[in-house]
Amino acid sequence: MYCPKCLKSIQDERVKEISDELRHTVGNRLLEQGMCPVCGTELVNTAKAADVAHGAPRGAS
Ligand SMILES: [Zn+2]
User: Fold this and answer.
1) Are 36 and 6 in contact (CB under 8 A)?
2) How far is CA 24 from CA 12, 19, 20, 34, 35, in A?
3) Ligand 1 center to 42 CA (angstroms)
C-alpha cells in the first residue's frame, strides 16, 4: 500500500500487523479501512496496480 500524499509505502504483508498495532495503541482504524493512518488519504494498492500492469485488461465493461 502506498500513500500518494506522504509518499510512503507499507509492505502489503505488514498492513494487517501495523493496522492491528495502531488500533490497539492509539485507536486508529484508518489503515484498516485502506486509508493512510497519518493523513487519511486513501492508499493506493500497489499489489493491485502491479496486477494490472502484468495482466491484459480483461472484463472491461
Ligand atoms: Zn499519508
Assistant:
1) yes
2) 19, 9, 6, 17, 17
3) 8
Return the residue matching grid coordinates 509492505. 11
The string of pLDDT tens digits covering residues 4-60 is: 999 999 998 999 999 999 999 999 999 999 999 999 999 998 777 666 666 666 765
Predicted TM-score of the model (pTM)? 0.70
Distance 58 CA to ligand 1 centre (A): 31
Distance of CA 24 from the midpoint of ligand 1 (Å): 20
Q: How far apart are CA 23 and CA 8, in angstroms?
A: 19
